[in-house]
Structures are given as C-alpha cells and as structure tokens.
Amino acid sequence: MRNPCRQSGWLLRGGLVARGGIVGWVVGVGLGVASLSAVTAQPPMPATTAMPEPPVVDRKSPVPADAPDRPARERFAIPNSDRHLFTAIEDFKPVASEADNALEYLAWCEFLLHAKQFSATELEEAGLRTLYAIDLIKPLRGVYRKQLIRFDGRLTSLRRLEAPQFLTDVSEVYEARFVPLGESPLTPVSIVFLDLPEALAAVRDRHFRDWMPADAWIQAAGYFFKTMAVPGHSGDILVPLLAGRSITPLADEPVAPGDDPTRIDKNKKIFSFIRDKLKIANRPQLNDFTTPWEEAAAYDRVLLHAARFSADELEKYAQTGIRYADLFLDSSAPGYRLDLIKFEGRLISLRRFETGPEVQAAGISHYYEGWLIPADEYGGYPLCIVFTEPLEGLQPSGRVNQWVTFAGYYFKKLRYESAEIDPDNPERRLDKYAPLLIGKRPIARRDPNHTSPFTWGTFLNTTVLVAAVLIVAGGGLAWWYRRGDRQVKEAMTHARNRNPFENPVSPSADWQ
C-alpha cells in the first residue's frame, strides 16, 4: 500500500519544479552573469587560500529548562510536527478511515507508533499536567495538538478495538473513557493505548467496540490528537482523544504531593485567566466558542475541588492569621491567589443559587453565597464566601446572624453592587470590591459577644413569678392548717361535752 502522504509530497514537489523551471533558468543566468562580473572585478585569489566553510549552527540549548524529576520533553516530541500530514486532522468527528481521510488516518497511526516507543511510566513522568479537559475542547485546543498530556482521573468505561491495518504488528488496541480529577462528568477524556493492564483483563471477554463499565482511579498520559463529538444522554458531548502506550490503575484517589492533600495546583493554565476587580462572567455552554469562558471555568473547577473535602479538612490545612487587608491590598502576582485561608466572623447574609450544567453533572445542584464580616473588622468591609454545602439551621433567604469559621480558596478581588447609592448617580448603586473565597461550608461557632439570657428584665419577671407562687403556696398551706385546726377543735369540744355513760360498749364474748 502506498503512503498517500509521500505520494502527495512527490506530486507537490514535481509541481513546484515544473512551475519554477523558467523562472529558475532566468535567475540562474542572472546569478551567473553577476558572479562573472564579480570575479573579473576582484584580483585573483592565491592558489594556497581555501574557501572558508560555513559555520555549523548549534541548535542545542546550553542550559535546558528542565526540572530534576522531569525528563527532557524533546525526547518525547513527535518529530517534524509541522508536516502537512497533521493539518488534515478534523475535530468533532470520529477518527477517519483511510478511505474517508487518508492523511488523518496515517497521522493517527503515527501517533500510536510514536507512543509505542516509550513505556507508560516514561510518558506519565513527562506528560504536561497544567491542563484541564476543557482546555482541549475550547478554541485553544489547537495549541496543544500533538502535545504529550497527563491526566489522573476516574475510569468509567473501557473497550477493545480492531487495530488499524497500517499497524501490521498490532492486532487490537484499547480505549478508556475517564473523568479527570477535579473535572465534570460532562468533560470526559478518551485514551487509546496498546498495552492492557492485567487488572482490566476482563475487557478481552467482550466483543470489539463493546463498552465495559468500570470504576477505578487511573493515571493516563498520551498525545492529544483531536476532540470528538460523542452522543450523550442529552445531546453530543465533546471528548478529547489521546494516543498512549497504556494506563496505570491506582489503589486510591490521587492527592496532591506533599503534606497538604487539599492543595490546589496553581500552575493550571486556566487559572492565569482570573482577573481582579471584575464580576464573575456568565458560564457559556461547552460548545459555545465565542463567549469568554476561561474565568467562569476556573471558578467552577475551584468549586469542584473544594467539594472533594469536608469543611473540617479544609480548616485543618488552611492558613490562619491573614487579615482582610492582606487580600484586599494584595497586588503581587499571584500573591495569595488560590491559597486556602481561614477566617472567623459574623455571617450576615446568605442566599442560594443554581449551579451550571458542568457542576450539576458532578452532583452539586446548588451553591450558596454568603457575606462574612471578619472578626475585628469594620462592618462595611465584608468577605464574599461561596460554598456548596448548606449551613444547618440557617435559611438562605437573605439576612442572617451567625458567628462562623470558614476556610476557602482565595479566588479574586470581586466587583459587586453594594446597597449604597452612588453619589454621582442617585439612580444606581455604588460598585465596591471584596475578596472572594470558595470552600465547602462554614462551621457555626459560639458567638464571642454572646450575652447572658438572664437580663434585668428576665430577672424581674422571674422574681415576680416566684413571689406569686410563694404567696399562692403560703395561702394554700394556711387554709389547709386552719381547716385541720378547726376539725381538731370541734372534735375536742364534742369529746368534752359527751356523757361517758351513754351507749356503753358491749363486753366482748371472751369475757362471758
């Protein structure tokens, strides 16, 4: 079978030669005349002097920007990635057959053959970890095509597929569908790979293309090929497709390296789009490629990350001692951005809102927005806190009064519309700014300004009540004693006036 890419390359090269023949002949004659005139105008060169050789260009970086625990990425890069072959890849479609799109078919085969050169461990160590799945869906996805990318996530299904005929030494390949850690089920990822882990060997008992349900944590690294449109329960969903060597099952949910499992990776590309002093933009649909989406997507992913932990866990690892002014006046980049910080204060407002489709798909139907006055701060300077779990005993209907502690990830300095009237425009309210933190739930605490319920009024009322009870009780006892005394006196008087010889008692039978 001929390589259509090679064939088209020869045709293209032949066309260029045919078109450029006359022009090349004219240019050649011109250069020859110019060279001849230059030679005649210069003195003859001595026979012993040799022409200098052109210098060799050093293409290696003297100081590569590599981390000690990360291999050089150049080793894993797909060679000559700017070839015309890769421009034929079309998103939002299945991987094309050779008959439908020969160049895309050959590009896919090359991706798999390139991944075959390395072990799964090597690819996982070198894979780019700064992306969410949504980065491979939106228009920026073209920047990451052919990049080696790693995800950790939850495996949801698995199947085996017939290998392309171009891969003569491979009989079957496998496709794993998984939801990356911290992502929504509406943004899954597929990876096609060559080596099946033994823990997933049951898929070999299935027919080709028959999905097997699965539920396991995995690591997966592969080269981003394209984004496919895949039928879902309520319309198509967009699924990035990777080509790799294998996947690695994990014993448990992966956690951040180090001593803090709640730490959020600040290096994720999407967090670079967070902008201070602006409201949170509306969430566009996943297939909306025109509306700005980056900050709203970052907001949802912090919400999903915080929802993975309990409120007590977040407070355990949160920083303390940071004041309102530290966040409000912070002008460094990124400063406290995405740090987990704990505050204590009075919750004065609470409302509930519906989450977007991506967060709802993760099982979170509502989020709560509260306004918190930190301890020892003026009432006009609140924090905005957002969380996903309701606070027991408080209705999200507006004004509340509850002393709480709250641990959340500092997201940005939020612009919001306050209750104050704008002095320059009485018809509108004044815009203000407040730090925005995203967490799981506030925890109710004892109010340090809590007053005793036994106030003077309460004491007076209690005293009157006790006195009334004593008076009633004393009156009852006096009546009871007087009644008893009267009965005794009557009995004594009757006994004193009775004739002792009246109605003598009959003698007992024993006396007879």
List keywords for this structure.
elongated, alpha+beta, 512 residues, disordered C terminus, 10 helices
Can you describe this structure?
It is a single chain. This protein has 512 residues and is an alpha+beta fold. Among the domains are: 73-250, no CATH class; 269-444, no CATH class. The chain is built from ten helices and twelve strands. The protein has helices spanning 4-19, 21-41, 102-115, 120-126, 141-144, 294-306, 311-317, 324-328, 357-361, 456-497, and strands at 148-162, 172-180, 189-193, 212-232, 235-243, 247-250, 340-354, 366-374, 383-387, 397-422, 425-439, 443-444. It has a five-stranded mixed beta barrel with strand order 1-2-3-5-4. Strand 10 and strand 11 form a beta hairpin. The chain is elongated. Residues 1-49 and 504-512 have low confidence and may be disordered.
Summarize the SSE layout with pairings:
Blueprint: H1 4-19, H2 21-41, H3 102-115, H4 120-126, H5 141-144, E1 148-162, E2 172-180, E3 189-193, E4 212-232, E5 235-243, E6 247-250, H6 294-306, H7 311-317, H8 324-328, E7 340-354, H9 357-361, E8 366-374, E9 383-387, E10 397-422, E11 425-439, E12 443-444, H10 456-497
Parallel strand pairs: 3-5, 9-11
Antiparallel strand pairs: 1-2, 1-4, 2-3, 4-5, 4-6, 7-8, 7-10, 8-9, 10-11, 10-12
